Description:
CATH class of the largest domain: Mainly Alpha
Helix content: 55-70%
CATH superfamily of the largest domain: Ribonuclease III domain
Structural class: mainly alpha
Number of domains: 2
Shape: globular
Largest sheet: 3 strands, antiparallel
Oligomer: single chain
Strand order of the largest sheet: 1-2-3
Number of helices: 9
Strand content: 5-15%
CATH topology of the largest domain: Ribonuclease iii, N-terminal Endonuclease Domain, Chain A
Amino acid sequence: MEPRIDAFEQRLGHRFREPRLLRRALTHRSAAAEHNERLEFLGDAVLALVVSNLLYERFSGSDEGDLTRIRAHLVREDSLHRLALELRLPEVLQLSEGELRGGGAQRPSILADALEAVIGAVFLDGGFEAAERLVQRLLGDVIGSSEVGSWSKDAKTELQEWLQARRLAVPVYRIVATRGQAHAQTFEVECVVEALALVERGQGRSRRAAEQEAARRMIEVLRDSDRPDGPLRS
């Protein structure tokens, strides 16, 4: 494991003065009592602060709503999952045998949480500047090369804003089915807009992805609707 840890530190661009912090960040709760959930909590906050600062500097003419939307895209589970795979985090993640057999080393939620824990560990080991350098290394190019218009609203946000603008209750999302083995599950979720008596379903590899698909389908229905409320405008 030591060579793998060394290689992982090189990919991070941070050499830990306290290796125990990195080991804890890479330990899932299924593997040991000293796991990474507290570091995940800390890393989530550090990540949000660094990304907020980067966006504040990059998009100086944008309002709070735009910045919040872009940040949500950058720190959501699927984005962090992709970054974790780029860092080859599964190679060093510590899981129980049962979790390994179930495909936990590839599960988006586990990898996204572990990456946040690593960011928290870097913060404790090297201070805010070290954590900031790591986040910039991971996301700086994406932020620096994009424009506000390229970060469209996600389907759930768009649907919620449309309903709220018409003083209708926000939609309710419910899991109606889960299929497949733990490492390759497919979720089916329904989106319910009770005020309009509408229900649409979506599928995805995670609950969040399924909710987004259900919301997207609901938006399509509303766009094509002849209801008195009027069609959904993008």
